[in-house]
Amino acid sequence: MTRFVSVPLANALQVAAEHRPKWPESVWKLLIYSGLWLQSLYVVVLCGKYDVLQNPLDIFKDCVFGDAQLKQAVPSDIYWMYMLQLGFYVHSIIGTLYMDMWRKDSVMMLLHHGLTIFLLEFSFLVRYHKIGALVLLLHDLSDILLEFTKVQVYLKDRAKQQWQLNEWMANIGFVIFSISWAWFRLYWYPLKVLYTSTWGIYIHHRHNDHKLVLFFNCMLIALQVLHIYWFYFIILLLIRVATGRQSEIEDTREFEEETTKNANNGRPHDD
């Protein structure tokens, strides 16, 4: 990926030297998040087989508990969605540790990736795959917009001149990203996921054993805590730009390149 796409593209666009270490990471994530979200959109919404977005309270309506719970078949489209997402997040842990630049929230990012892998594996094993598919749909769009914005930031200073179009696109992208984060992760996630995993299960299975559900909900709530934590950084950046304390959009989580975790970090991906 880096050798055949990111580096030639950076050379063709004459991306500034200070942005070269971060360029491959954002290009890779923009492409992979776009592909994963389009897959989620098709499976959850467009194919018409599931109504988990429109009627989330019915997600657990046909769910069974006990010994039969682990014997339920997982539809092939959701199965492959899970496998691709699991592969990506395992790769993301390796990338954060050994390839990506070390940031202020890298520890939290590792926690997020680990929690996501655990949630994916757990929900797959106990056959909570429908609500898992909904969680994936609500998450990846914001990541696409974030990486798009970062790519525009890197492109606005290239070929030894400033490109106003890329600066406008970075500003617009960040505003849309902020709105999408608030809507999908701070509004729809608790409304459609947390509400369903608590009240939705209760109204359909109030007399069943819910030990696994309680544990699952704790993990989902922990994920929401991370959403709020990162939204704090988003608000900080918006305030800085609005008050004139910062003149342009940039990733407020990043240290300078020389403060990478070790001498090997910060090198481009070799995906």
Tell me the count of domains: 1
User: Rough shape?
Assistant: elongated
The helix/strand series, from N terminus to C terminus, equals HHHHHEEHH
| Main β-sheet description | 2 strands, antiparallel
Portion of residues in beta strands equals under 5%
Q: Regions with pLDDT < 50 over 5+ consecutive residues?
A: 252-271
Q: Give the helix tally.
A: 7
Helix content: 55-70%
Average pLDDT, rounded to a whole number, is 84
Structural class: mainly alpha
Give the termini distance in whole angstroms: 5 Å
* Order of the strands making up the biggest sheet: 1-2
What does the radius of gyration come to? Answer: 20 Å
In total, the number of strands is 2
Subcellular location: Membrane
Keywords: Membrane, Transmembrane, Transmembrane helix
Protein name: TLC domain-containing protein
Pathway: Lipid metabolism; sphingolipid metabolism; Sphingolipid metabolism
Give your account of this protein's structure.
InterPro entries: Lag1/Lac1-like, TLC-dom. It is a multi-pass membrane protein. GO terms for molecular function: sphingosine N-acyltransferase activity. There is one protein chain. By secondary structure, the chain is mainly α. The chain has one domain. The protein is built from 7 helices and 2 strands, in the order H-H-H-H-H-E-E-H-H. It has helices at residues 2-13, 23-46, 76-98, 106-125, 129-155, 164-205, 211-242; strands at 157-158, 161-162. Strands 1-2 form a two-stranded antiparallel sheet. A hairpin with a 2-residue loop joins strand 1 and strand 2. Helix 1 (2-13) crosses helix 2 (23-46). The longest helix has 42 residues, at 164-205. The model is unreliable at 252-271 (pLDDT under 50).
